[in-house]
Amino acid sequence: MRVLFVCLGNICRSPTAEGVFRRELEAAGLAHRVEVDSCGIGDWHVGKAPDPRSAAAARRRGVDLSELRARQLAAEDFSRFDYLLAMDHDNLAAIRAQCPDGCGAHIGLFLDFAGHVDRPVPDPYYGGERGFEEVLDLIEAASRGLVEEIALRLEGQRR
Ligand code: 4NP
Question: Is 123 known to be catalytic?
Fold first, then answer.
């Protein structure tokens, strides 16, 4: 199973989702069964490490983002990943616009997995410190929901 998190710059929200979701997979004993990556719609930050404010907020919750580097969404991602999960509606529209016909991946908003309907992870880039904490709260909730769904799918594959 392969999961790709997508935001605008790939330096705040989607690398946070990548790190937190990995931590939740490890806690569930599923890290070896699921591949996780993140990317951005834009190319401004390609090759850069996560924003220091995101890295610090994640570190406070036991998640290390220091090895991650930004990259841009690529055509191959649509055949490689089972889930392409957008942080907000603009990201989602951009993914859909680039999605080839017949692509079988699940494409949707990440917070659907936190039981929120149609809700974005707000972009924290131009805001204050509190925005980064809110991003983590939302991403932790959705990560737990996504681990539950994937655990059920993997269980189904074994039967
Ligand atoms: P992200 O946040 O999409 O969560 O990585 C942003 C990072 C950079 C910019 C916008 C959003 N930017 O405009 O450079």
Answer: yes
